[in-house]
Amino acid sequence: MFQRIRCLLPRFRLYSTVGQVSETVLPQLHPLLIQRAVFLQNEHKELSKKLDSYDPELQIQFDRISQIMDKYEKFISLSGEISELSKIKDHELIEDAKVEIQSLVPQLQELCNELKNKLLPPVKYAECKTMVELRPGVGGNEASLFTEDLLQMYVNFAMFKNWKYKIVSTGKTSSGFINEAILSIDEPGSYDILRHESGVHRVQRVPETEAKGRIHTSTAAVVILPKLSDGNEQSLRNDELQFKPGEVRIDTMRASGKGGQHVNTTDSAVRLVHIPTGIIVTQQDERSQPQNKAKAFAILRSRLAERDRIEELEKQKNLRTSQVKTTDRSDKIRTYNYPQNRITDHRCGYSLHDIDGCMKGEKLQDIINKVKEVEYKERMDEMVSAQSTGETVEG
């Protein structure tokens, strides 16, 4: 089937009872994505041969490609059905055919949108769970309050998606304002959805403490990391084995802040220092040192994984002759303007006039989808460029 249909007709003609011709543009896939589908079909066949004996990693890969192939088969089948309906010229059936086509085209569009991203070469760690790190930027206490608002937004988004989540840790200043928060989202594939949230988020609003009603501008930094470990005592041993002897320095100390007598009498806090990169992770939220250590190692692994992914991305970009702005990293990615009830994402130019809906988690996906549309265009340009230079597209 995949070899038979290489491209789709961009439009079909449906003759009405009065002889007029109605033309509708059909959703279609880029020829390079059709090529990717054929490549994945062959890979799917090879994997099925290798799964005579159970292999967890191969099974995950096989299942992922199976889901893509199922959607692609539905896309081809639905396209063929619409094509057949469009050929009807019987005056008694043509109106029914038009109604049927109108109901099928939105389904085809939805499948096309899903396949546009799924048929692109996979993003590294796309299938992973997620860790979200948030820190206040410029703006003093108002920046801390905005950071807390963003944390709640991602919690609300996880709840809206029915994803399991947990606030791993929160750090606060002596005044009680948040200075760091880490959220764990335990939904496979959530990293691919949330990775575009990394960057500086800016808010423009009148703080509650502002007596004269002046609008203040504050920022918060969001970092989205792939979650590679469960961060518990059971996963700790495996996490430690990922590092060479002497690569990570482990310091223990007494936790600071609120927590009663236990905080002041037990060396439960853990600080990890990754010697090659200088990355430091400190955890003190748990009462037990092993629990804090497990959390710290999980965070360290996530930060290193994201660091490696970004370095790899930069190397790929440096190899290209044309500099393409990426949606992955940007200083100021989004502005939340409360007086105008507007959220603007600067990477795609999209504005959502519903701050409350976004902060409740219900409309955040709308913004993410618009950013993904920009990424799709960028990555398609990369594939076209790669083909023109003779590079392979089977990433």
Automatic annotation (TrEMBL):
InterPro entries for the chain: PCRF, Pep_chain_release_fac_I, Pep_chain_release_fac_I_sf, Prokaryotic/Mito_RF
Keyword Protein biosynthesis included in the entry's annotation: yes
Record-annotated membrane-spanning stretches: none
Keyword terms: Methylation, Protein biosynthesis
Biological processes, Gene Ontology terms: mitochondrial translation
Gene Ontology cellular component list: mitochondrion
Residues of the Prokaryotic-type class I peptide chain release factors domain: 254-270
SMART domains named among the record's database cross-references: PCRF
Keyword match 4Fe-4S: no
Family label: Belongs to the prokaryotic/mitochondrial release factor family.
Protein name: Peptide chain release factor 1, mitochondrial
Taxon lineage: Eukaryota, Fungi, Dikarya, Ascomycota, Saccharomycotina
